[in-house]
Amino acid sequence: MPDLTDLTLVDALQALRRGDISSRQLTRAFLERIDSLEPSLHAFITLTPEKALAQADEADHRLRLWRGDPDQPLPPLLGLPIAVKDVLCVADVRCTCGSRILENFIPPFNATAVERLLRAGVVILGKTNTDEFAMGSSTENSAYQVTHNPWDLERVPGGSSGGSAAAVAAHMAPVALGTDTGGSVRQPASYCGVTGIKPTYGRVSRYGLVAYGSSLDSVGVLGRTAADVAVVFTLMAGHDPLDSTTMDIPVAEIALNGTENLTNLRVGVPEEYFIQGIQPEVESAVREAIHTLESLGAKVEPVSLPHTEYALPVYYLIAPAEASANLARYDGIRYGPRVPAKAMWDIFRQTRGAKFGAEVKRRIMLGTYALSAGYYDAYYGQAQKVRTLIKGDFEAAFKGVDVIAAPVAPTTAFRIGEHSDDPLAMYLEDVFTLPANLAGVPGLAFPVGFDSRGLPVGMQLMGPHFREEVLFRAAHAYQRVTTWHERKPEGL
Ligand code: GLN
Asked: Is residue 324 assigned to a domain?
């Protein structure tokens, strides 16, 4: 039998329905691959094999009933294993957020995104590694372990959804959930050679996602193909009464039937994203991919996003400001472990001092400073004004084009430890992903080549609010005529 972990989501679902394989077989295949690769990759913080096999057996039972009565509706993902980033609550499974301050937090409820997928029939393999509270671009800021890039074990997988990206790239799961506040789905997808969607802000409920930057956070999906990612995205998306920022806009079914033609697609290329310092092989792979879109019928034209250079300082004021407020709740009283002390303030101080990592403390200090009386207008207030200009850039550009094509990150995956002593160098990896979060627009990253070291290069397509399906159609058309997304890291 072929290796079941090589099946795409779309193919696995078909095989399950036909009865060619059982969910137990499929789940076991992924659990076994996780067992053999985890010692070198460290993609998971928590594994839930017993729960997964119980869910798989339940799915097999329902599949058998359905085969006896195929007119019954079948949950669309019945029996499909997935992995979940450890910042999304799964009921009764520890949720650490990569932090010691939540090392024993067991949520009693599911995040809405997780709940919807469970209702659709998924099997949850475990919780994937993340930078602490999703703050980082390399997954090195996890308090538990460093995840290694399956294409080169000495390199980072990107972050903060690095565990999810590495798991998908190494075929430890067909798809995985991630979150993207400033690039954390797209950048690790790019570094690991997989496909990842950062949806429009307000498209997928944030209920049960542990908050980092509430005006920026979005729940996304990583998978091996645009078609696979689209299926999961569609099932998670939509209005949720538990998150008042979700919009009541119908989620279009994304029918990728293989006959996509891009004749009516206008692709904008922003010169602000091809800056000095970008790795030449990244630039050439992305420009080549834009030519491929053109050869599929798309019309390519330059666009300008003139405030792009301000995205980095604006983001690194707004995100830490929101984080400093969101993380105030971890005080040693309400969640997680407590460092005992006589006075309440000492409990707060000592618990937070001992259990938060260095990057989280840096952000809390930055954010508290930016919000403090006397500085608020100069920093936070000013950043909000410039954010509006960045959003305006996208609105103006989308008057003339349907999507914007750009690199995901200026470089391919860097070496573990390379940026550890230089937070600014780490923040620079985010220059191309932050604008979409500040503007709230969707972005889809997918592989468009490899550099001379054999490391994947990603391109992102950004689109107008709530137009994810346009991104998926373009990426699917691209993946029909290219094979980058079919490559698998060797030697694992
Ligand atoms: N790297 C960015 C940060 O550190 C983005 C992280 C994210 O998207 N969660 O904030």
From this structure: no
